[in-house]
Amino acid sequence: MPLDQSPERVLALSGIFQAARLVQQWSRQGRADSLPFGASVRSILSIDAADAAAVFGGARGVTLGLQLLHEKFGGGAGHRDLEMAKYVIAMLQLEATLRRRPEVVDAIRRGIDAAKSQTGALEIESDGTVPTQLVEKLAELYTRTVSTLTPRIMVSGEQGYLADPQVAAAVRAALLAGIRAAVLWRQLGGSRWQLLLSRRRLATEAAAWLETLRLH
């Protein structure tokens, strides 16, 4: 990692925001943008990636999250999304809980390894399509581990969608991706104080990433 980890840190934070939006999409529309969902699911499996960008298959994998971060922290006139904020805060709180529960962390890592071996022949498509079996395995892992912790994340949405087993599994997979991004955020030196005091800087760094992606 470079000495200045703030650009990497912004990618991790964008991963949290992206996961929150994916939860909203699945729970309210019964579907989600495929490329961001594929990148977020891929991040769960990328336990030993070389850097933050590699976790998401490249910085482009969190384009949606970078856009959201720039929008929410940039001081624009866009409406406040309290539901998204609730999800982001809950993911960060669960990451803090996980740091006090190493046995749960170990169970998650074992579960990820098992999901990778059981679905090894199934790959995330270039268009972001994720094999249903992989989503289900990750959702089961979330249920066995993260959902036993507090605070539990209460997902709002259309009951008809949330009652669909495939949609519910996708929501849980997105939540697991958000918590994975929260772990990365903390590993790179991210803190709650930065979210409170460095919002403009984070928005500026998100904008810089977006410009780099636009030029390449």
State the total count of DSSP E strands.
Answer: 0
What is the helix/strand order? HHHHHHHHHHH
**Integer-rounded radius of gyration:** 16 Å
Question: What fraction of the residues are assigned to beta strands by DSSP?
Answer: under 5%
CATH topology: YcfC-like
Shape: globular
- Label the CATH architecture: Orthogonal Bundle
CATH superfamily: HflD-like
Profile the largest sheet: none
Number of separate structural domains: 1
Please mark out the parts with pLDDT under 50 across 5 or more consecutive residues, or reply none: none
Binned, the helix content reads: 55-70%
Mean pLDDT level = 92
Give me the secondary-structure topology:
Layout: H1 6-29, H2 34-45, H3 52-55, H4 63-73, H5 82-99, H6 102-118, H7 132-144, H8 159-162, H9 165-187, H10 192-197, H11 199-215
In short:
69% of the residues lie in helices and 0% in strands.
Describe the structure.
It is a single chain. With 216 residues, the protein is mainly alpha-helical. It has one domain: HflD-like (YcfC-like). The protein is 69% helix and 0% strand. It has eleven helices and no strands. It has helices spanning 6-29, 34-45, 52-55, 63-73, 82-99, 102-118, 132-144, 159-162, 165-187, 192-197, 199-215. Helix 1 crosses helix 5, helix 5 (82-99) crosses helix 9 (165-187) and helix 7 (132-144) packs across helix 9. It is globular, with a radius of gyration of 16 Å. The two termini are 22 Å apart. The mean pLDDT is 92.
